[in-house]
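Encode chain A's predicted structure.
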Amino acid sequence: MMELLNDEYYMRLAIQLAVGAAGQTGINPVVGCVLVKDGRIVGMGAHLKRGTAHAEIHALQMAGAEAEGSTAYVTLEPCSHFGITPPCSDRLIKEKVKRVVVGSEDPNPLVAGTGIERLRQHGLEVVTGVLAEACRELNETFNHFIGSKRPFVTMKTASTLDGKIASRTGDSKWITNAESRTYVHNLRHRHHAIMVGIGTVLADDPLLTTRLDVPALHPIRLIIDSTLRLPLESKVVTDRTAETLVLTTENASESSKQRLEAAGVTVISCGSGPQVDLSKAMELLGGRDIASILLEGGGTLNGAMLEQRLVNKIHLFFAPKIIGGGRQSLDTMPFAGFDRMEEAIRLERTTVQQFGEDVCVTGYPRYSSEVR
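Encoded structure for chain A:
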């Protein structure tokens, strides 16, 4: 029991190291590693950027000669293949690490248990599954992307208690408080891209960057615009802080496309219908190695993404306000809906956080197996 408690203690430290690098590893997983010898931490590391040294290598470099005979606590199974960097399992073997404690196995088909097996073949003791759920949650984006080649989509909405995202006049600033908005900017920092519809751009002219008190990463801006109405003077076009991609249809005006491209915007055609084929868009964005998207759309885009089962996680912010307005006020996600309650989209693994007087409900949508 004492050994298990120690294993969990050091794995929690490794998880904290990994969390610190969230948002900056691209399509790679976030990983933390702690090396312990004779009850002392002798090395620590995290994977910081795609194509650079992995967490285990940073920890081994810090430990130096003290790595020999140590225990390595790693949130994700050490890799066993040559990619941009050499296999971490080989380096652990070379440095004569005695024991390796693994949080979760790597779902990447190039690894998938082979790293653990390689370590055991060379006589290292390997313990698996320590804080496994927490370690898997670290890489929910990576785990989804490696299996589907599509982005992990997190939908964020903010509404009044009566489910409105704007008043009957269209006013929406601000529904939530400053604490909630700061948390949302942290979410932007952790996502590869941010997606809104053209309606949001025309109504609010947002910058769609990350604004925090410390330096932060800015997501790629994705604009859903079926008819290329995006004004050249809008901030997402003129601002160069982040790249802007416009997702449109094959029927969109060629001259409008050329004007946007001349202004530095990338235009991507997604289907030949009257509206952007959102499923096709996810496929194309995955092909561009965009692993995660924060969906901050209006009600129409949110509803369409849910209706097509393209949302993987949801943050629902509620402010303690009631605005009324009936049908003239804007709803959070006004899609067609379902005929029976049993068909409703359910949120699983829900958590509740409070930001001042605001409340945020977070969960993972489970879609009905029935096709409407």
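The chain has a mean pLDDT of 90.
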